[in-house]
Structures are given as C-alpha cells and as structure tokens.
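Example protein was shown:

_____
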Amino acid sequence: MRKVFSGVYGRYILAFSAIVLALILVMGGFLYRYYSNTIYSDFLMSNGKYLSSVVDQHEKDLEMIKNISIQLGTSNVTVPFQLQKNPLKTFPLKNQLHTYKVVSQFYDGLFFKFHDDQYLYNDSTSVQREFFLDKGLLLSGSISAAFPHS
C-alpha cells in the first residue's frame, strides 16, 4: 500500500483528494450555515404570523364579549329577576344566551348574573354562584382570591 502512494502519481492523488475533501467541507459548512439560517428565519417568521393571527382572533373575541355585554345590558329580555321568585323568566334569557353560543364555541362559557341574585345563568343551566366558584370554576389561588364568595 505504501508503494502505491510513494510515487509522484500517488502524491498527486493524495493532494487532489485533500483539496477535494477541503472543498467539500468548506461548501458543506457554507450550505449548512445558509440553510440552517434560512430555515430558522422562516420558522421565526411563520411563528410571528401565527402569533399575530392568534392575537387578532383574541382581540376580536374580546371585542365581541364587550358588544355582547352591552347588548345584554340594554336588552329587554334581561330584566332583573330572582330565580327563586320567578323561575320562568330564565327562558328568554337562556334563549338569548344560546344565540351567542351558536355564533362561536368561544362563548360556550358565557354566564350572566344579576346584581341581587345568587345564580349564574348560561344557555343550558342555572347554577348558584358559590357552587360555581367552588366546584365549577377551577382557578389558581391568586386568581380565585379576586372572586370573593359573598
């Protein structure tokens, strides 16, 4: 094996192989850096666009919640009543709340409460406020402190 690379021809082969290997390594390093930077920048750009669309959707949903609260506040269906005194008045309120749920599943957890009543209403049920805060709404301790039971 030594005799093959000991002559002039063998040295040319070794030199040529070293040059080709060096060129391949340099080009490979360049291509790796170029494509990894390109892929990473495309990844960041697509994530930015996705986050922007999520922000836009949440802003639209919050604006819709604001509009719904104004509509419910000015509606003649939401005349204050107490469930224990007049349970039949819940049906028009539940029907109106159902129309908002049909628009988007985002409003599935939309509840309505009157100031003097201890019940929360949504399109399918009525639940006592204390029961909802204790069992139905699972929040961390710092957030649940913002909702006192009385």
In short: DSSP finds five helices and three strands in the chain. The mean pLDDT is 80. The longest strand covers residues 119-121.
